[in-house]
Backbone:
């Protein structure tokens, strides 16, 4: 679940990089973008197609160019990203939580870092086995 979200964020970032290159250097072609970003041609081509479907760029014989809708999109981008960030913040786990495993609680502390969440627990293996057993018994 989280891996899919990470993949989408990475792809969105690539689309943003491609759009930024088009804005700053239009007209610009796939080969130039690929060489400068390090992304393979097919990934640049996909980003260009997505941006074209959103009417943010258009193809030309010299390369990709912005459209009349590009500036408005860029103006709104930061506020839209802030909204999404707020929604993600709302779904974060609390700093303390417990999962019922049979008659015992699996008490864990979550340590939040910038890149990941580290879970520490007393007797983690034993509690995990009880949790799995409880699921198996239904």
Residues:
């Amino acid at each position: 679940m989280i891996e899919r979200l990470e993949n989408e964020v990475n792809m969105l970032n690539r689309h943003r990089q491609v759009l930024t290159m088009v804005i700053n250097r239009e007209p610009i072609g796939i080969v130039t973008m690929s060489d400068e970003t390090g992304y393979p041609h097919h990934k640049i081509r996909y980003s260009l197609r997505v941006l074209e479907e959103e009417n943010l760029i258009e193809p030309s014989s010299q390369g990709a160019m912005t459209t009349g809708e590009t500036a408005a999109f860029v103006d709104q981008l930061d506020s839209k990203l802030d909204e999404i960030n707020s929604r993600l913040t709302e779904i974060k786990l609390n700093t303390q939580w417990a999962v019922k495993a049979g008659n015992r609680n699996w008490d864990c502390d979550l340590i939040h870092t910038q890149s990941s969440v580290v879970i520490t627990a007393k007797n983690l293996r034993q509690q995990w086995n009880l949790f799995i057993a409880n699921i198996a018994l239904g």
User: Anything to note?
Assistant: Residues 96-137 form one domain. The chain has two domains: 2-90, 96-137.
